[in-house]
Amino acid sequence: MISAGQLISERVMLKRDRFFAVSARDGSIRPGEFLGDGLWDGDTRILSLLRVLVNGVEPRAVGFETDDASATFAAEADGVHVTRVRFVESGLHERITVENRGGAVVDAVLEVEVAADFAAMLGIRGAVPELASPVPAPAIRTVDGVRFAGIKPTRVITFPEGLTHQLRLRPGEEFALRLDVVPETDRPVVDFVAGLDEAKETYERWSADCMSVRTDNPAVNALLDQAIDDLRMLSNRYDTGIFPTAGMPWYAVPFGRDTLISSILLLHVNPDLARGVLRYLAKHQGTRVDEGSEEQPGKILHEVRDGEVVERGLWPHILYGTVDATSLFLCALTETEDWTHDHRFADELWPAAEAALNWCMRYGDSDGDGYVEYLGGRARNQGWKDSDGSLTNTDGTEASRPAALCEVQAYLHRGLVGMSRRKPSLRAHAAELKRRFNHDFWMPDEKYIAQGLDGSKLQVRAVTSNPGHCLWMRIVERTKAAHVARRLVAPDMFTGWGIRTLSGRAVNFDPCSYHNGSVWPFDSALAVAGLRQYGYAVEAERIARGLIEASIAFPLHRPPELFCGDVRGPGEGPKEYWNTCTPQLWSAAAMFTCVSSILGLDADPRRKTLRVAPIETGLWKRIEVNGLHFAGQRVDFTVEGTTVKAGRLANGVRIESRARLS
Predict the structure, then answer these.
(1) DSSP per residue, 587-646
(2) How far is Cα 196 from Cα 69, in angstroms, rounded to an integer?
(3) SS3 (DSSP) at 87
(4) Residue 294 — left, alpha, or beta (φ > 0 → left; ψ -120 to 50 → alpha)?
(5) How far apart are CA 328 and CA 415, in angstroms?
(6) Hey, how many other C-beta atoms are within 10 angstroms of the C-beta on 568?
(7) What pTM, to 2 d.p., does this model score?
């Protein structure tokens, strides 16, 4: 049996809004092989087994093709060729075709095995032990298939009717069986051909709405195309707009922190993501004090769950247990207004921003020292490194609480700077926070920023990747930034593929841990962006190139949630972390941050000026950028080496190059 998550990158993932399917590369769904397999409706697995048999055995897989809209599986058995075409739309839809490609008549029995256990995602992941061992629901035969009764009653419909079919195929003949797995509702089942066409058209429309990048490196192009498709696949549609979920299969639900960071990184790619994210989070912003859900007035949510864990009171529908999402909301809203010039949108959400700022000052800073801290809740650690052992002293012991993380103060600082454009009185607050931060978090002997301050206001002196976020948010004084830049690319931090979450010199360093030595693409990308902003272009390009090359090496050119922090060796690829999500939202977003940092993209929105300062890279010699979103317009330009050539420019928008402009 394969351990849960060991080969997540080898699974085939399809998703449309809240429904998603996880299967093997032969199309089969077997949780005994991979725990996350199934057809999921949100947090509930409504199909836990799907096998296609010919004469009692599974056909031999001979290939598969997949894009984010559909998947096609090919197999052979007993003289027949089996093709399965699948897509997801309010359920799973599949066309199974059995074809006789030989010269003689073939008799065969086609059989489809199905089961449903209505497993809870948090149950099988171990977060809710009471639901760790789901039991298959009884199958009730119906005229057109099977019905499974459970928390979300499900129908399996076949046409022609029946799960078993005796076939006699003459040479060249074929038999097609349509299979639909859908919730039991009054809605008609989607037509297969029309549904498949619509699924593909959804991605075509999405691509047209997003920035397009083309280089003379096909591998880079494939990476960025996959990232664009993955952003759409991960997204759900709500009345507030489009909202990308965090990652598959474990985190295919709304998250606060992940989407806020990603929406900032993707403003030039498609700002509608930021609008949808901010509206959704504002709609669900905390309004009361509730210890069970960790809700507080003004607080931005951590995650949204549904299904049995919620109905039985084992987990809150909305969990607010995060220390950073609220200050990130301030950053995302002000950065969105600044980049898009969509002032009406900012007006609409400004009350939510003021409530979020009030949370930072009141509930987030419980002891009144000016820093946002956390005590812990369902998650002991409530920053982005939320595993239990991710905040430790240099001897490996846990830091005391409440803890003030360095990056959280950086987020707050950037939020204050952004809000001060409308509320100038906040400038002094931002400046004072920056001054105190550079004094209290600076480790003179290490010439580096501490990971945090513990409950006694002592530095948590671990050398981590977190200061890269501080560069990104521009809270670090320039003289100190030079030291941070050098350390980020030092051998104990930079692996050749990316930046480790924890120094290789630490006593608790483990390159294959979740947060204590692994590489997270988004985390490294934020450091890349920060380095470029402070003028360290060579260092930024080196890390960005390593991260892109690592991502290209993974299956389907998909950057995973994280990978192991082993040193890059000649002829060796990056080592996969055993339980990583892929596709992953902020890992996909990180690819565009790497590209924009190599190009040196910066903006002066008030002058409607896009600055481009490319640095030479081994990734490409020529790059075309089309449809970049800026100041409410679309912009095109091309870079040859370091020479920038402007393309389509809307009225009032101009490109300013620090290299040569032709």
Answers:
(1) HHHHHHHHHHHHHT-EEEGGGTEEEE-----SS-SEEEEEEEEETTEEEEEEEETTEEEE
(2) 8
(3) strand
(4) left
(5) 7
(6) 15
(7) 0.96
Tell me the per-residue pLDDT of 93-135, one tens digit each, with 9 for 90 and over.
Answer: 999 999 999 999 999 999 999 999 999 999 999 999 999 999 9
Question: Domain map of the chain by residue range?
Answer: 8-200
At 191-241, the pLDDT tens digits run 999 999 999 999 999 999 999 999 999 999 999 999 999 999 999 999 999
Query: Alpha-carbon distance 269 to 507, whole Å?
Result: 40
Does an H or E element contain 335, and which? helix 325-340
Instruction: Domain 8-200: give its CATH architecture.
Output: Distorted Sandwich (2.70)
Determine the 3-state secondary structure of 501 from DSSP.
coil
CA separation for the pair 16, 657 (Å, rounded): 40
Angstrom distance (rounded) from CA 202 to CA 215: 25
Return d(Cα 70, Cα 13) in angstroms, integer: 9
CB atoms within 10 A of CB 109: 13
Helix, strand, coil percentages (3-state) for the chain, rounded to 5, are 30, 25, 45
Query: What whole-number distance in Å separates Cα of residue 31 and Cα of residue 23?
Result: 9
Number of helices (H), then strands (E), belonging to the chain: the values are 15, 32
pLDDT digits (tens, 9 = 90+) for 448-467: 999 999 999 999 999 999 99
Inter-residue contact 428 to 435 (CB < 8 Å): no
Contact assessment for residue 98 and residue 81, using Cβ atoms and an 8 Å cutoff: yes
Amino acid at 72: T
Helices (H), 38-191: 121-124
Distance CA 614, CA 616 (A): 7
